[in-house]
């Protein structure tokens, strides 16, 4: 297939692009480089051995999106593009709604106009609100912050689009906590500013960019008192997109919803110790107050994706830490400008 990957130079998109090309798909990317660097493209071309056409514009721009679809044959879209920082979304709600909903509007409009019916969408465990323990896809969706609401709303918009046009096939993929990097160490997560997520933060402590890890609360009702999350290797997550893309071709229903997670919770301290094993030394941390809005435990029930997509996450926490550390060591300040 000729697959348009929106946000294809970002963290999850870039790993998915490599797997798409390896599986024999033709890939084109659209990204405004709002949260990624153009140098990612050189790395992707080196890994895939292919020239990758990259269209650099903002997807909220209807005219440019329409122009792309009018000029390029496209069989399917994987839609990663979006803003994703929960805390920032509380401070900048309008920017989040405008960017995340606006990019979906112009993308889906252009798809409809040009008869593109297959879409894989990046949703998130955040649509389970505070009810994230052993979450199944049937659980009601709600959110506790503007970022989460953009995901709940985009899911609803896409379901409504599918009602209006039964020829469309849409996969809503609810990711848990992607970490890790490509085994080559040449692509990985490159957060701008202070990392919002645990593992990039630990990696920056390990490489000397941050002094210590702040552990937000050790009095949660978990075995060691720290919050548990379902961490999934980004390569397993990328593989979930290929499985969903294949599934679109045989789906009876227009919309399918799947959790992509391992089904296992790992605590903050367990993750820290796993990273210490990868690095080969202890890493400094301090316990500080809980962060408002954090839930104690979040993990997926991935049974539906295992069964219906024929997909299962195979990589361990130690694999995730080893790959993150390889990427971080080789790229201590992230991608070059
Ligand atoms: N990383 C996570 O923990 C996580 C968890 C659940 C869901 N998700 C979702 O997965 C998707 C990808 O996440 P990621 O971690 O790779 O993020 P990322 O920021 O690394 O990648 C997103 C990419 O989209 C681009 N982009 C954003 N808005 C755009 C626009 N209007 N037009 C064109 N390009 C635009 C950015 O420049 C970036 O390259 C996002 O939709 C995110 O909400 C991520």
From TrEMBL:
EC class name: isomerase
Catalyzed chemical reaction(s): UDP-alpha-D-glucose = UDP-alpha-D-galactose
Name listed for the protein in its UniProt record: UDP-glucose 4-epimerase
Gene3D superfamilies registered for this protein in UniProt: NAD(P)-binding Rossmann-like Domain, UDP-galactose 4-epimerase, domain 1
Cofactor requirement: NAD(+)
Transmembrane annotation, as ranges: none
EC number: 5.1.3.2
Pathway noted in the entry: Carbohydrate metabolism; galactose metabolism
Molecular function, one GO term: UDP-glucose 4-epimerase activity
Family as reported in the entry's similarity comment: Belongs to the NAD(P)-dependent epimerase/dehydratase family.
Keyword field: Carbohydrate metabolism, Galactose metabolism, Isomerase, NAD
Coiled-coil region: none
Domain NAD-dependent epimerase/dehydratase: 3-261
Subunit comment: Homodimer.
Lineage of producing organism: Bacteria, Bacillati, Actinomycetota, Actinomycetes, Micrococcales
């Amino acid at each position: 297939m000729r697959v348009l990957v929106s946000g294809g130079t970002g963290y999850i998109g870039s790993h998915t692009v490599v797997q798409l090309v390896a599986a024999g798909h033709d890939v084109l990317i659209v990204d405004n480089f709002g949260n990624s660097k153009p140098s990612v493209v050189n790395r992707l071309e080196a890994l895939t051995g292919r020239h990758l056409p990259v269209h650099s514009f903002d997807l909220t721009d209807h005219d440019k999106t329409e122009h792309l679809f009018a000029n390029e044959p496209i069989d399917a879209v994987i839609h990663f593009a979006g803003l994703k920082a929960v805390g920032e979304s509380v401070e900048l709600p309008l920017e989040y709604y405008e960017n995340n909903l606006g990019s979906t509007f112009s993308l889906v409009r252009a798809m409809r106009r040009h008869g593109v019916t297959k879409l894989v969408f990046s949703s998130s465990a955040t649509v389970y609100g505070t009810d994230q323990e052993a979450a199944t896809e049937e659980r009601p969706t709600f959110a506790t912050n503007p970022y989460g609401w953009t995901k709940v709303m985009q899911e609803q918009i896409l379901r409504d689009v599918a009602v209006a046009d039964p020829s469309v096939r849409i996969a809503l993929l609810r990711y848990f906590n992607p970490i890790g990097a490509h085994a080559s160490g040449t692509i990985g997560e490159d957060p701008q500013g202070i990392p919002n997520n645990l593992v990039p933060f630990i990696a920056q402590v390990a490489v000397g960019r941050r002094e210590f890890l702040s552990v937000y609360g050790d009095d949660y009702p978990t075995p060691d008192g720290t919050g548990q999350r379902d961490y999934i290797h980004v390569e397993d997550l990328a593989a979930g997109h290929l499985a969903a893309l294949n599934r679109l071709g045989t789906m009876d229903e227009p919309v399918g919803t799947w959790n992509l997670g391992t089904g296992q919770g790992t605590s903050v301290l367990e993750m820290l110790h796993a990273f210490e094993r990868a690095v080969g030394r202890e890493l400094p941390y301090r316990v500080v107050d809980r962060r408002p809005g954090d839930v104690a435990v979040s993990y997926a029930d991935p049974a539906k994706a295992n069964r219906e997509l024929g997909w299962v996450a195979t990589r361990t926490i130690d694999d995730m830490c080893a790959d993150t550390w390889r990427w971080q060591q080789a790229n201590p300040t992230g991608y070059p400008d």
